[in-house]
Amino acid sequence: MVFSPKVELHVHLDGALKHETAWELLKKKNLPLPGNGTYQEFLDSIIVKEPDSLMTFLRGFGIFLPAVIGDLEAIERMSYEFCECSAEQGVIYVEARYCPFLLMPDSFNQANFLSQATGNKDSKQISAQEVVEATIKGFQRGEKDFGIIARTILCCIRGKPEWSKDILGLCIHFKDQGVVGIDIAGDEAGETPIAGEESELRMLDKEDIEVFEKAAELGIHRTVHAGEAGPAQMVWKALTVMKAERIGHGYRVVEDESIYRHCLDNDVHFECCPTSSLLTGSVSLNDGKPHPITRFAQDGASFSINTDDPTVTNTNLSDEYALCAKWGLTLVQLQEANINAMKNSFAEPDVKRAIMEKLYSAYGIDKLN
């Protein structure tokens, strides 16, 4: 679907590595390749074609991400090429998120949800700060060459609370260099949706909660993955306990009318990712129910359209818009999604104003209306 300009708020930088680049680097570094080692087998191993679970969806990361782990030059290249690909899709402003620790060899191999990964023995020991610096360099070059504005969000990971304080520290340190917010990602399964100090699982994310409370105090913008693999109550927890300003995914919020009504009344923004919502099993269309995105559109909810992890979905942003159009979203609703995306972006005030002006002008909308 031809639609431009666009704004994207929910895309994982490490889940947007170009297939060709990953393949090239894996071969160059003599890293393990799936099957008989052909490019087609590589693609077949990392691209998710059928709906399953979030954990199944993430398996491909263990195959392709070692291509860039511990390699600052490759991380910068990944960031630069990300800007190129985004610009090709008509994106004029994007916020890409990633966990810097997952681009560090030891930390990546220790991450529970990527435990199947094959390590790169030649990876260098690098710091999280160096990872962030490399992505900033790539984005700065990409902005200059492709005329896009690119910002980053740093992700904490559920089950790895020991990283969270350092991630907040990096958000603070690089606040004036393009890092605009903090997130927490990972599987919600097993996390207590309602606070309860007697729960051991509740205690496991105590550090994360403290970090997000501190981020709110310091004025660091916050988004939280919630209501994807977990129930609607996870959205409520994200808003009330984690102090979230936006919700990553959030589809299952429609299962609880009171929480959903709260979100509508308070203009909570949902970062929707159409294709991944199906492939992770978060949403099923087999029962004949419409996708929650269509209800968001009908109810006037604030939401955006995003790619999430294009390396594994094998989609681009135009594909996501086409899918939403297939579900019945109109051109006006797609335009509104972009306007709401920019309104709820974590961009600097002057950047937000400039992009909003571009959107209104391109869509032929009087901003006073």
TrEMBL record:
Family annotation (Pfam families): A_deaminase
EC number: 3.5.4.4
Bilayer topology: Peripheral membrane protein
GO annotations of cellular component type: cytosol; external side of plasma membrane
Principal localisation: membrane
Domain named Adenosine deaminase: residues: 5-360
Domain of life: Eukaryota
GO biological process: adenosine catabolic process; hypoxanthine salvage; inosine biosynthetic process; negative regulation of adenosine receptor signaling pathway; purine ribonucleoside monophosphate biosynthetic process
GO MF assignments: adenosine deaminase activity; metal ion binding
Compartment list: Cell membrane
Keyword tRNA-binding: no
Family: Belongs to the metallo-dependent hydrolases superfamily. Adenosine and AMP deaminases family.
Protein name as it appears in the record: Adenosine deaminase
Organism for this UniProt entry: Daphnia galeata
Source taxonomy: Eukaryota, Metazoa, Ecdysozoa, Arthropoda, Crustacea
